[in-house]
Design brief:
The complex is a heterodimer of chains A (118) and B (111).
Chain A lengths: L4 E3 L2 E4 L5 E6 L6 E7 L6 E7 L2 E4 L8 E4 L6 E5 L8 E8 L12 E2 L3 E5 L1
Parallel strand pairs in A: 2-11
Antiparallel strand pairs in A: 1-3, 3-8, 4-5, 4-9, 5-6, 7-8, 9-10, 9-11
Chain B lengths: L2 E4 L4 E4 L4 E3 L1 E4 L5 E7 L6 E6 L5 E4 L2 E4 L9 E3 L8 E8 L5 E3 L3 E6 L1
Parallel strand pairs in B: 2-12
Antiparallel strand pairs in B: 1-4, 3-9, 5-6, 5-10, 7-8, 8-9, 10-11, 10-12
The chains are: A mainly beta (118), B mainly beta (111).
Chain lengths: 118, 111
């Protein structure tokens, strides 16, 4: 079974340019998460979806960040315009429900998209 | 709010050494606790978990016990291998289902 797929793995852009990251969760997973991971720090939640509805976007900087999950499957995270401080790894994760996997509470993570803003 | 504090790294060990990574938490209610691991070039994956006080999670020779009285969930392994070199994250899932991570501890095991 395929895991969580993210693309691109690496992206280098100049500041003020737009950038988009794509995530395809594990088939059948209703809950999708976008996390931000700065160097040397743990992941921080940006937004959480239950199907196509954003149930928690309180940590998403809405002036420049946007996300969508139109059909409740794959999702796109966009930054426009990018700033130097946005350089980080953007992680996508999925689970069957808000509770995570029924027995473990586990979230399944993709490999991440590493953004460098010059 | 809810938060997780874990031991700063990096930690460098020799093979077969004993590993402990400290993790303490602050939370309201009764959180579930997790250890995730990130091997080089891979995504985060669940290592072990505990859902209530005195539960012990274990996997791949690693163990952690949910200690409510000390609000801790320390990770231990009695004899590490080179393949255990990774970044380890302690995490907490609160009553609102939000998963919060510690800063991560980089562990390097030398042959």
């Amino acid at each position: 079974e395929a895991g969580v797929v993210q693309s691109p793995r690496y992206k280098i852009i100049e500041k003020k340019q737009p950038v988009a990251f794509w995530c395809n969760p594990i088939s059948g997973h209703n809950t999708l998460y976008w996390y931000l991971q700065n160097l040397g720090q743990g992941p921080e939640l940006l937004i959480r979806y239950e199907n196509e509805e954003a149930v928690d976007d309180s940590q998403l900087p809405k002036d420049r960040f946007s996300a969508e999950r139109l059909k409740g499957v794959d999702s796109t995270l966009k930054i426009q315009p990018a700033e130097l401080g946005d350089s980080a790894v953007y992680l996508c994760a999925s689970s069957l429900s808000l509770l995570g996997e029924p027995n473990t509470g586990e979230l399944f993570f993709g490999e991440g998209s590493r953004l460098t803003v010059l | 709010g809810n938060s997780v504090t874990q031991m700063e790294g990096p930690v460098t060990l020799s093979e077969e050494a004993f590993l402990t990574i400290n993790c303490t938490y602050t939370a309201t209610g009764y959180p579930s606790l997790f250890w995730y691991v990130q091997y080089p070039g891979e995504g985060l994956q669940l290592l072990l978990k505990a859902t209530k006080a005195d539960d012990k999670g274990s996997n791949k020779g690693f163990e952690a016990t949910y200690r409510k009285e000390t609000t801790s969930f320390h990770l231990e392994k009695g004899s590490v291998q080179v393949s255990d070199s990774a970044v380890y994250f302690c995490a907490l899932r609160s009553n609102d289902y939000k998963l919060s991570f510690g800063a991560g501890t980089t562990v390097t095991v030398r042959a």
